[in-house]
């Protein structure tokens, strides 16, 4: 085969840049159709209108400050109930898991053994998702103690794994 014949045959097989663009566009259109995408078409000089959103806007995340205040309030209520000897009230503020681990009678016996004095005006809560750590200053010294809480439904609950009810280990 002569060189000119081979070159002519090569030119017929190899697409020109314009043919390449057309083939690429057609290939993308086929892929788009297979993927379920709509291919925009223009009829006239105006572009199509953007689709109207059908989804509702995402709800805003609850305010972390609000959760911190609620968790702090639960710790205040818990410590106030223990101090007043209202052990059933304090026990009700425990998480479900903590209530299951500590029977009310045992909780009351442990609570009667005393507890440190807390400075309830010095609470500082840190909320991370559905957990919170509320630090409370001790009135006797400059130290602090942390209470771990979890959120069960909309309520914050104290996690009490062991120790004394007034100084639960986290």
How are the SSEs ordered, and which strands pair?
Layout: H1 3-13, H2 17-34, H3 64-83, H4 87-92, H5 96-101, H6 104-111, E1 118-128, E2 131-138, E3 144-152, E4 155-158, E5 163-164, E6 167-168
Antiparallel strand pairs: 1-2, 2-3, 3-4, 5-6
What form results from the Cα inertia axes? elongated
Low-confidence stretches: none
Q: What proportion of the residues is helical, as a percent range?
A: 40-55%
Number of helices: 6
What is the CATH level 1 assignment of the largest domain?
Alpha Beta
Span of the ends, CA to CA: 88 Å
At CATH level 2, the architecture of the largest domain is Roll
Order of helices and strands: HHHHHHEEEEEE
Mean pLDDT: 78
Order of strands, widest sheet: 1-2-3-4
**Could you please say which CATH topology of the largest domain applies here?**
Nuclear Transport Factor 2, Chain: A
The largest sheet is: 4 strands, antiparallel
Description:
The structure is a single chain. By secondary structure, this protein is of the alpha+beta class. Strands 1-2-3-4 form a 4-stranded antiparallel beta sheet, with helices on one face. Helices cover 41% and strands 21% of the residues. The chain folds into 2 domains: 1-47, no CATH class; 64-168, NTF2-like, domain 1 (Nuclear Transport Factor 2, Chain: A). The radius of gyration is 35 Å and the shape is elongated. The protein is built from 6 helices and 6 strands.
